[in-house]
User: Fold these one by one.
Assistant:
Number 1:
Amino acid sequence: MPSLAITRRVCVAAFATFVTSLPLTAVHAQDNVLNIYSARHYKTDEALYANFSKATGIKINRVDADDAGLLARLQSEGAASPADVVLLVDAARLWRAEVGGLFQPVKSAVLEKRIPAHLRGKDAGNGSQWFGFSTRARVIVYDKQKVQRSEVDTYEKLSDPVNKGRICTRSGSHPYNLSLFGAMLEHNGPAATETWLKGLVGNMARAPKGGDTDQIRAVASGECAVAVTNSYYLARLMRSDVAADRTAVERVSVVFPNQASHGTHMNIAGGAVARHARNVPAAVKFLEYLAGDEAQSHFADGNNEWPAVSGLKLTNAALDSLGNFKAETIPVSVIGMNQVRVQQMLDRVGFR
Ligand code: FE
């Protein structure tokens, strides 16, 4: 939707010129539009937006782009940005936006009550604030023919000599990995984390490439024996209409790492009110909608994530089959904060 920024500027100019003569209904019509910049890359989300519009009468204009593209666009648009709401996936990216001052404070009793404190962004000192609406686990998948579960039941073991030549991974600098490594830095400290990352590089079956689903497929095809993936990619293959996807996922086993210690690394998808939002009431209303039972259930049933709000009844057999597990509880904002130090470590150990 490249014309959105231009449209906004034209609208603002028109509004300034004709405001005194505008009938009240026209002003209200303007209030009934919400501009969302979204980096959620999940087709099933269409229902979320449609349901919100149906329930509130607020029309949604959406700009879909990858996270880096959205952040760059918000930065370059500055105060002229038409964005009211920003949706991002991954704590590392939300943290980047928070530090960049791209969000604004939100006053909402609903969000305070519904979203657990450890899934919210801490104010970085500039009033930027965000909320996690769904969670995903970063799990280990392995070839059950070649690997013992006990060899891969912690993230730490990924650097053990027993896993030499076994590991496939996406880029170390991808936010999903930066967040996992940022969590490891929090749990184990800098020296142990850098040693661990070095061991991980030494255990790779191939140079990092592809996304999480590619790693699952590489384990299934025998190209490697161990990989790390976000849980919803695995659940998506389990629920796929394509037989080859289900066959692939049947060839691998999954482990929720670190059950005997700090729990499995969790990440989030979240959202915020944009710094220069025009329609703040609608933006807050949308975030509150995302925290409601309907949207929260949708994250699970539609996109195989776990809701941020606990205690909801879900109907997702794939998630059910993954079972209960101990999840990490460190604040997600800390994970974001650690990513700069992690990136320096990756550069030092040659993890591309
Ligand atoms: Fe993803």
Number 2:
Amino acid sequence: MVKAIVGANWGDEGKGKITDMLAREADIIIRFQGGANAGHTIVNNYGKFALHTLPSGVFYDHTTSIIGNGVALNVPLFFREYQELVSRGVHSPKIMISDRAQVVMPYHILFDQYEEERLGGHSFGSTKSGIAPFYSDKYAKIGFQVSELFDRDSLREKLDRVLVTKNILLEHLYHKPLLQTEPLLEELLEYGRMVSPYVCDVASYLDQAIKEGKNILLEGQLGTLKDPDHGIYPMVTSSSTLAGFGSIGAGIPPYEIRQVIAVCKAYSSAVGAGVFVSEIFGAKADELRRRGGDGGEYGATTGRPRRMGWFDCVASRYGCRLQGATDVAFTVLDVLGYLDEIPVCVAYEIDGKETTQFPPTAALEKAKPVWETLPGWKTDIRGIRSYDRLPENCRRYIEFIEEKLGYPITMVSNGPGREDIIYR
Ligand code: GDP
């Protein structure tokens, strides 16, 4: 049985917490896309961790954590994260890395920085983790698979070839120091030595695991609205954030993904540039940011303050639909307990017409939010474990949003911890 845990919004919905929680019942947890450009924050009995590369299941003894072929693997960061876990008392996690995963090259990170500098005011707000240059090279067929890290001669030959175009850009476009084959070759061989204990044919392993009826979780990064096809292009990430891509980024049959848990946050936040219709500003935004998440809404990778907004039914319904949600996990609801009333964006007005359909970016740029206001519940709901114990206005908020989404909210998260969950 394969379940996907994916974001219905812009990311930072609390997927890490839901994965960590569901991992208790899982055998295998897989990351299938993205890289170290976003992070999951997880709070459990070992403390608080920001994971960027490792799957959120690494805290359990009984699970195997897998880095799938779809991931942008930053080897030194992977290592640092692994060692931090071990040094903080987490038993050595069982990890596998797909032999088909590709490696973030040191120059991908440089090119990400140089390009953002060059674009200046028109930059993408990249985290400068090398993700866009990485996926560009992957699809331009000049990327390096993990399986290539072990043969000095063919690595040298390929580096020589790839560096020709890289150096032309460095010299003539960016006016930066040129790259040399030999130091990069040594670095890649070192990467090979670092990952070699973990490398395997992940897709065959998963084929067998599925046949044995293992419980498998696919863990998504970011959310629908950052998908390069269905999100707010071009202010998106460079790999698909959709559950459907789990099949490709892990190497399993699409029909094996039986459950898709779309994680949806009870209000909105986004990092980086791009249209954000239900965004709020000023003192209201500051207060929500300060109270949000677990210790404030600041990027887990960059520490950047997140942009804040009220819940957006149009974007979230679209987000759930493109994920193919079978379940919605509604998260961080406890944070809203301070509000007298809670605005919700129920439709967009575009060129004088109201719509509940999420349009492509050109039209989205013109959208204005249509608000409806719900009464707040003015209490702390942390610690509540059953749905009918929630204050009436809180249930009204959940049920109002469930109706607007058109997908069942089967889990309500009311705190950052594993046990802060209400099943419906
Ligand atoms: P992810 O990338 O989707 O895993 O999300 P992040 O880890 O970036 O952001 C979620 C933040 O909210 C983390 O700090 C979590 O510890 C926290 N969090 C998750 N669920 C809840 C919840 O129900 N209530 C509160 N207060 N915090 C939560």
